[in-house]
């Protein structure tokens, strides 16, 4: 869900990359009768569930259960499988045309029939209405046609191997043409009429209620409904879970709360599930801003980063050190920054690079590090980074910290206002493309002036490379897995050498469930399949 996406479209959607929780799984023996309602606690507010405009993590979880998509992920894996499609798409030899057969016998929550026209309507509305995530499809799709009652044909602007994964995005779900309209700016933030296993019953300020859809074409829910209870703060959510007022803690617990719940799990017997998530935090370096316009300076900053200290002192082991723009959950990942600079602080390399760049005790390098002041974790991380620099290389490098609220940061990042900024990221679809292209791709620019328009400019880095642009285009055409892996290997190596960004840590996903809950597991997609859960 790209700071391109994040900066331009979802400024407030991903405020705490550490605390994204997902569920899915099947009980060991399917119950014959559904259990009673379940309650999920969260601190994440939901401003809209209109699929053409919703662009937050919690809204994506709701849409995952209220709607279906052409493709989805097989539970417990990153394997893409058909959902409303009957098979993986047939792709033309030039990689531009996708023909997709559709499932028959599916109806919307309002009783309308699902078919190719309804699917085409929904995707066209996603693009035309111009909501926050609209660029995801508008950048890729040239034309959408219902070529028969149950066949959809999509023509792309450019070849894009990861397109089926993009169609699994939570908002790319069909909605009833009877209820919605195609019109720029027309949204229904508190309504939803789709084809999913649950239907929306009520949308309140602090509670959203869902009930199973009795005409759902797929697997029936194991419960009689779900309430999403929105708490005003992390402490309230923490106390509600500890006292059993909610069945699960979905999002919004603070670091200290997670530690307490983990420590007390054995005595209280509630369930604690954790795994590496898909979100990450990183430094964006403005390559047009002196002295960061010198590659030796950027490399020296990369060499002095101590990820293990951040992992231990700031996040209490609730993150994983990251040495690539790709998370370690993707097979294409190579730890290129570890290869280039080592796993810890490489003081000697940093000194060598700074000396080469002309810095000394008499002329130390002075750098500004900006962070989002409204996020406590970012402030703590920035203070820790400064502390590590002061302890390990005080005579050659001085860090000045500056905080600014998220809204201001996102507004000014692509204007070149910040030399170096601590940011976070989560993908819109599970593919290496969603981590690389939104960072280093550039639509317009040159090696001398940097990126004028495109992803790296929106990220505040302004990095430009003809070779990188060519490799991204190659990766989007490649259908051979080994070729894609080779291309992404070179891209990661270039990023570690040129250092327009410095990856720091990868988030962990946590799920806390009461002992009596069955079917609680974590998915790599950060989505929650409500229907698989039941109370004993």
Question: What descriptors fit this protein?
Answer:
single chain, 536 residues, alpha+beta, D-Maltodextrin-Binding Protein, domain 2, Dipeptide-binding Protein, domain 3, 2 domains, nine-stranded mixed β-sheet, four-stranded antiparallel β-sheet, 30% helix, globular, disordered N terminus
Describe this entry's structure for a reader:
- With 536 residues, the chain is α+β, with helices and mostly antiparallel strands.
- The chain folds into two domains: 286 residues, Periplasmic binding protein-like II (D-Maltodextrin-Binding Protein, domain 2); 229 residues, Roll (Dipeptide-binding Protein, domain 3), CATH 3.10.105.
- It contains 17 helices and 21 strands.
- The strands form six sheets. Strands 1, 8, 9, 10, 11, 12, 13, 16 and 19 form a nine-stranded mixed β-sheet that branches.
- Helix 8 runs antiparallel to helix 11, helix 9 packs across helix 12 and helix 16 packs antiparallel against helix 17.
